[in-house]
Amino acid sequence: MWRFRDVTSRLHPPDLHLQWMGGSPKCSPMSVRSILIHPDPRLKKVCAPVSDLSDEVRMLAADMIETMYEAPGVGLAAPQVGVLSRVIVADAEKDPDATPKPMAMFNPEVVLASDETNVYEEGCLSIPDQYAEVTRPAEVRVAWIDRDGNPQEAEFGGLWATVLQHEIDHLNGKLFIDYLSAMKRQLITRKSQKLKRERARA
Ligand SMILES: [Zn+2]
Fold first, then answer.
1. Residues near ligand 1 ion, CB 5 Å cutoff
2. 155: CA distance to ligand 1 center in Å?
3. 25 C-alpha to center of ligand 1: Å?
4. Segments of 44-126 assigned E as strands
5. Model pLDDT for residues 138-174, shown as the tens digit of each residue
6. Which domains does the chain show, CATH number per domain?
7. Tell me: the pLDDT tens digits for 10-43?
8. Residue 27 needs a FRET pair 20 to 30 A away by CA distance; which of 4, 20, 43, 136 works?
9. Global pTM?
10. What are the residue numbers of the active site?
């Protein structure tokens, strides 16, 4: 059986935090993108790996961070803004007074998961106002490419573990409601569909 050791102290290695807010001369200002609402066929697609960390891809990640904070949410995946690329952003810091520490991950992958599980009441920016308990591995080891193109690997527990698994699922066309019973999933889908229609009319 595999277990993580001392997960909490390794949750937020400081060198992994991105300084998106600093601004670089070649980047235009970040902008908030609109979030797709379920049901949408783009939320069911398997996303393509990022092969080149172009300015466009970095800008996408910066915009996603802006969009996530504005929502507000703790994570966002590229397909939620209509881009079918393997890019996620997250900031699962619980302390509202803490300095924001957004992470952007390109081609993230869960490489190991604990046997131990955790239950969180999950929601999704693409399924507004709907929440349900989902059971997932409590701790995960995630591998990804950072914004400088370097491979990274780290262990995550607590809310971070749940958020990263939820966002990585998005890259495979999977939503948190796919873990629920068909009946619950249909109920939430109907409510989301209704809200989507109301917003379209507004
Ligand atoms: Zn989501």
1. 124
2. 21
3. 32
4. 75-77, 87-90, 103-113, 117-124
5. 999 999 999 999 999 999 999 999 999 999 999 999 9
6. 9-201 (3.90.45.10)
7. 333 333 333 344 444 445 678 999 999 999 999 9
8. 43
9. 0.85
10. 167
